[in-house]
Amino acid sequence: MSDGAHDAALRAAVGDLLDRADAETAGVLPIVQAGAPVLRARAVRYDGQLGDLLPRLLEAMRRTMHAAPGVGLAAPQVGIPLALAVVEDAGAGDDDPRERSPLPFRVLVNPHYEPLPADSGPDRAAFFEGCLSVAGWSAVVARHRRVRLTGADETGAPLDEVLTGWPARIVQHETDHLAGELYLDHAPTRSLTSNENLVRYWAASPDPAPAAAALAFPLDRRGS
């Protein structure tokens, strides 16, 4: 199949997906769960394949992210193998140990991140993390506290910014999706917990140290 024919087939599939969501679920898209091959394939670079369908898809992804609810959603999570993601988080206050500052809504097109040294403290932070494509579960993931994000937005304008703390974690999580990776690939398996047990045992504090002690898994808080 030629690239043109492939793009036409992709546009038709995305259009059908959006039409079904509008007709059946108020515009909310079904979220693909772990085990689906699309989540384990490297997403295709976005070079305009969707044409004028792109704004409609991005709005549906935003609506789906809010409905879940979540703080990020990558296109493969709705079955579309393109390097697109949306992110947004209201934050959790200045005293949150996860450094969960607000992350305004934005679209990430062909994003890439690279780790940067933290301004102070350790270069990595370990916290419980979940995923809309691994519904009902969480695990502890050590991530870079500070990253440089590059790529573009939905208009094609370049992105080049530095993010710290929880916003950096969100960007890493969603960009990893586009490489065919799930957060579980980076988590100690002994840290895996149902969300019910996360609330039952570990909700008192975001600090995963008590869980690490009780479940016997290592905490990675090294410098990079």
Automatic annotation (TrEMBL):
Protein name, as recorded: Peptide deformylase
EC number(s) on file = 3.5.1.88
What are the binding positions for Fe cation in this chain? 131, 173, 177
Query: What catalytic activity does the UniProt entry give for this protein?
Result: N-terminal N-formyl-L-methionyl-[peptide] + H2O = N-terminal L-methionyl-[peptide] + formate
Cofactor(s) required for function per UniProt: Fe(2+)
Is Iron-sulfur given among the entry's keywords?
no
Species this protein is from:
Isoptericola hypogeus
Family label: Belongs to the polypeptide deformylase family.
* Cofactor binding, note field: Binds 1 Fe(2+) ion.
What this chain does, per the record? Answer: Removes the formyl group from the N-terminal Met of newly synthesized proteins. Requires at least a dipeptide for an efficient rate of reaction. N-terminal L-methionine is a prerequisite for activity but the enzyme has broad specificity at other positions.
- The UniProt entry annotates the active site at 174
Gene3D superfamilies documented for this protein: Peptide deformylase
Regions that span the bilayer: none
Entry keyword set: Hydrolase, Iron, Metal-binding, Protein biosynthesis
Q: Which InterPro entries match?
A: Peptide_deformylase, Peptide_deformylase_sf
UniProt KW Lipoprotein keyword: no
